Amino acid sequence: WLDGNSTDGFRKAIEKEFSSIWVFNLRGNARTQGELRRKEAGNVFESGSRTPISITLLVKNPEVQTEKATIHYHDIGDYHKREKKLTIISDAKSIQGPLDWKILKPNKEGDWINQRNELYDSFIPLGDKKGDKKEKSFFVPFYSNGVKTNRDAWVYNFYNESLVKNMKESIRLYMEGLKDYKIRSQGVSKPKADDYIDFSQKMISWTREIKWDIEKGKEYDFEPDCIRTALYRPYVKSLLYFNRGWNNMQYQIPKQFPRGTIANKVICVSGVGVTKDFSVIITDTTPDLELIGKSQCFPLYYFEEREKNTPSLFDAEGKDDYSRREGISEFILDRAQNNYGKNIVKEDIFYYVYGILHSEDYRTSFANDLRKMLPRIPLVDSVKNFWAFSKAGRKLADLHVDYEDVAPYSEVKVSGDNGNYHVTKMKFPKKGVKDTIIYNSQINISNIPEKAYEYVVNGKSAIEWIMERYQIKTDKKSGIANDPNDWCDEVNNPRYILDLLLSIINVSVQTVDIVNNLPKLNFEE
Fold first, then answer.
1. pLDDT tens digits, residue range 21-33?
2. Among 68, 210, 327, 495, which one is least packed by beta carbons within 10 Å?
3. Hey, CA dihedral for 356, 359, 363, 365, is it positive or negative?
């Protein structure tokens, strides 16, 4: 409640209700990752809570006449273990003890701590879907969250045969449930699925949407054409059963990727309210909601279905029955051409966005804003810097989209390669030692540069995403197994996982180099 976007109204309310407020922030947020997680450190309730804890005193003094409370605040500090925090609390004894209280001055948005930067509001929104503002942003209002399935274990899998089997079994159980529901609920007014269905079956995820479909009498068949490749997590592809009935929400993704074979690129940024540091990734395939943390995906193109053989004058040619539209707005094209010259095209702006979203100066200056709002982007002052960001963004995009084709980093050494590329779970030799990865019982990868781990996306390094996701897992709820080695068969490359890891090491090093050479941005002038 102290810093959440959704609780700004609560903060504003208690400011009005009380004469003084004392907040002792004990931190301990376990729903963070990386350096932020290390700073949050121990929780005073240990495993009893994953949320941050504070001691809060709300004081209402009838003799004090004030419109808003005086807010006293003390932060316990970074990196403290649970025992240290308990000692600090015990030694303080009272709000009148040795704690150094500071007075908070909330802003108009209701931020108490980690306040937004007023300069951020002067930048142009990446996207906006509200009223007139949607005409004055970088992208037209067809950006979208990534696919939210609410049944990942069932609709995602590395192996086509397993995915087909899982989905056919889910649909079979659904249809059996529908049949039982129709028979058992005859004559009942507005019968509820919960009263007539056996929900003990594990090979189907009985979400409320599926129960509503039962009540509507909706029938399903398995549709092979719904299987497509998706980017599930950073640099982790998987097969997805892309079907509205079996995905909780597809949002605007059907406009961005109406078919799995249609070419497009989308820039995916962290969604509003995520606890991890802001990050961004680009993909040319269907993105998952948690690809980048409540992903908001901004497309180079979007597609509208058209009647066959009736393309309009403005439709780009294509083999499919879709009209291709530009994702970048006319508004920002006019602005950019006025600032930088008439030779600017929309694709240049698209890559400019990707470049500047990697700028450490930008991310650091507006870290609080980026957690609480969608990105707003400045147009840099000089033509030279615009092109520097655009060209860097294009280089980054080529790396991050075509990551599988990037050659291994030249200085990395692979030992024990005897042709056995089967992976169970990759690991480091010991805690804190990351220059070597134990790939399997025979193969080791060593001499990995420390720099490679500086490329962090969605809370952890790209390398560690590969290590985490390319391991054999069995979903506890359904019992469904997902074996990344099966993907090697899908792409007909037994070395795929090893090659991928070696490529991502190089992708990471090159990304860090490109980002470090971006033009400097000074937002304090």
1. 999 999 999 888 7
2. 495
3. negative
